[in-house]
Description:
Chain A is α+β, with helices and mostly antiparallel strands. Chain A contains 23 helices and 51 strands. In chain A, strand 38 and strand 39 (721-726) form a beta hairpin.
Amino acid sequence: MSAKRINKPxxxxxxxxxxxxxxxGKLYKGYQGDTLASALLANDVKHLARSFKYGRPRGIMAxxxxxxxxxxxxxxxxxxxxxxxxxxAELYNGLSAARTSGWPSLNFDxxxxxxxxxxxxxxxxxxKTFKWPRKFWPFYESIIRKFSGFGSVPTETETEWxxxxxxxxxxxxxxxxxxxxxxxxxxxxxxxxxLLLDEQAEIGGWLLSDATTQIxxxxxxxxxxxxxxxxxxxxxxxxxxRTTAFGMYDHNFVQAVxxxxxxxxxxxxxxxxxxxxxxxxxxxxxxLATGAIERPLVFGxxxxxxxxxxxxGQTFLNRYGVLVGQNIVLCGNNDEIYHAxxxxxxxxxQVVVIDTRRKIVIPDDIPSVIQVYKGHSIVRVEGxxxxxxxxxxxxxxxxxxxxxxxxxxxxxxxxxxVHLYCHDTSRPIWNETVMAFVVPNKLADCKPCVACVGAxxxxxxxxxxxQQTTQxxxxxxxxxxxxxxxxxxxxxxxxxxxxELIVRLPDGQIEGYGAKAFVDYQNxxxxxxxxxxxxxxxKNIEHVKRYTAFGFGTDQGKLTSVNCFLLTAKALNVPISxxxxxxxxxxxxxxxxxxxxxxMCGDTFDPSRTTAIQSAHIARSALMEPxxxxxxxxxxxxxxxxxxxxxxxxxxxxxxxxxxMDASTLGKIQIDGPDAREFLNRxxxxxxxxxxxxxCRYGLMLDENGMVMDDGVTACINDQQxxxxxxxxxAARILxxxxxxxxxxxxxxxxxxxxxxxHWSTIALVGPKSRAVLAKLCSDIDLSPENFKFMDWRSGTVxxxxxxxxxxxxxxxxxxxxxxxSGYAHFLWEQVMAAGKEFGITPYGxxxxxxxxxxxxxxxxxxxxxxxxxxxxxxxxxxxxMKKPFSFLGKRSLSRSDTAKAGRKQMxxxxxxxxxxxxxxxxxxxxxxxxxxxxAGTHDAPVHMLGRVTSSYYSAFLGRSIAMALIEDGSNQVGxxxxxxxxxxxxxxxxxxxxxxxxxxxxxxxx
Amino acid sequence: MLHLYCPHCSQHRDEEEFAxxxxxxxxRPLVPEEIDDETWGNYLFMRTNSKGWFWEQxxxxxxxxxxxxxxxxxxxxxxxxxxxxxxxxxxxxxxxxSLE
Lengths: 1007, 100
């Protein structure tokens, strides 16, 4: 055993609460408060993974979300979660985790053989090797996937759920370290509505890992507790832990994900709580207290399990009570290593310090048992699966020597967590004094409404951070109109020696010849790879990143990217400020798809609308069809009928006796005002000046390009009120369209629009017996054909209910559309069914409606048109009032050269030669049957298409198939035989001029 | 996500409540029949597409349904202000004058 449990006051693990967990099939013990990483380290499990490219053994490097190696598969079945960082997985009873890498097994990894020939696998290896021949890629990919060692996606549907929550705040503070806590307290004390987020289970940040610092005379834990108590006492402050702000977007909109239940034993998870909650946060001021991450040094074999960052070692010791080794070598370029050395030594480890700086004063309080090598570097770490020793050498030359070690901790300085500040593509600034990329530490230099406090600004020492945070918050609050007298908490810990920038520790050899020195662990990028990329003339840091693959993966280079920037600058021999950084993009840490989707999945993905008559349709076993958000009856099968049998029956019944359809989904807009008529004149292509009260008219609506965008019947209720209907799918769009033209171009028109789609329901009574049925229900309207003509509407009482009856038809049959307040619609439907019983009244759905309207040649906007079709193309010039005084929408475009040219695609009828053959809707129309059909994925010559079939049905009434089509120069093709090609079938059909297949004189609808 | 001010509701609201409504102040020619195809084509299809300050329309579609005008920087998404179509017009014209 090299690791050891230590109990001391700073430790947050509860040793009285033992937790049993399983890792890779073996049982282990840990304690409440452990992470999976701290518990595994305490159990001496160091080798957790194999590396991505070379298959090298890897262990835990860090203690937080920056961990690149220790990815595990957490739980199985519906709880399975891939690629969880062991350093972030809180331990709970019964936790079960497994390694995800190593193929065929962790101890024998096929890739590790590659290490022997790794000189053959330089940067860009995959791109150079596997890109050719292209068709082999699927084979290459299957092997590379197995090699890569990432987790597997869950195969079962999870039963847990997710949630979204919106916040509108005065102040959002991101980060619950000391600076963040102080910022939230300062803001909260003024009464501002404040929210503080922290990604960890416990607030306190780095102070939880620092066992010796005293602030305001208190030790770390006591100080955090005092801040926490002060925050809890403020009702206007909310603190969320286990909540990671992962993205900052336009106008400082922040998204954060809270993991509510992932830390709880599976059987204790509550069904009434979401698993994760996505917080969507809008705050007047965003305070970033995101801290900093220690960057490791780059030296030979710096990836052997047992090599970690200094801060990780300190965190495991002081916060989790795990002394990670007995023989600890600390190597660094800053004074933090002495702080750590004292911690480890006091707790019983043998400690050796390798300081890369030559001229330093060793702090007084360092125990004399600690051996210090000044001006030295690590040549390489010894050991294969775990650290056995360290070979070091003087930076001033001389021979190297090897010392025993079981843990190597390195520190190359701190890199501020600038991600959120830079998510808008801005770059952090290199600060030479603190040797780090920082964000502004003064309010005047920050982006609007954003403030940065603490280590993220480069204020790395406690006293600096406390002072900077206090000053910044004074300025922020002052900016918000609060005069405050904030006092900086007192702390006098200071470092003795300045840091000296170093990344790659010299090993006395030319780069690439010594032991592998890794810069990016997750992607197996070495210092030599960066040099190679620069040698191969990649000069922009974004290109170096993509060529070597540094900074990708689940850790997104949090630990190591700055080292890559620094090494690139060195290889290019330019200042680091010139290289700058790559682009920081959301998400800061991986976010589950479930959290992003929230409750917007399954039934709640999109609202489903049903008419007031829905339950009547269900009772008559209608099959439903989605039409936009609406669910409409599709057809009403009887016993063993299939769709064809049902539709034939419904259509024949409607043509011979009477059918009934729920047409309530039609969009309905009430248009009021003295200028309503003039408005209609402007937005419809046909004329409205003469439409009298009690009359209806079919209207065609064009966009400004002259293309048909909607159609429908509009009734004149009185001279200042019209009742417009739109297509089912177009209702919302058309209302917006009308509003926009009114508001932006013709505000002088006195006209108002009200959506009444849901207020009115419509029952269409259709067929030769429709009048007879209506007569049974309605006594106060004169239904005689001479007094209630086609395209008239009447107000009256139907089944005792106030109704508007429109004599309009979407089938070519005599028809009455009963419009009624929706609350009465279901009742009226049943009354109509009862009254029609003696005539064999037949309810029908959308499919029969399509057959009936196609028999009469009525178009469906969006099916027979596609936004490139003018009314002239449709043969509907009768609906274009070219003589209207106002230049209605789309009129001018009808005379543009392209719109007016001859030979455009025009609407025609098509009759298949075989009357039983129903052309496939969407079939392409070609001139000859012997053309060569181009094969997919080849360079076969394209075939000229004349057009396409837009509507096609079998008409039981006519006893044959019918179709409508848009065909080039269609009016001149009449009589020709063309061929409709789809799904491998070539069907001959004859072009006919009219799409009106029944009753061209309109005798049925006028009857 | 943008945070937009609706001058009709006098409220800042999230972008989710609004619908983008294209470039602002593109007047429809008064007598379309009297202009040539090119001018009409420019009115239909040509937009400023500027990198930087841009006058655009938004509709408070999940609110008052009013269309208003916003001056937004298309590069930084900074917003200089929101106005009713009437109030914004003179500012837009001044702005246009200074840009040309």
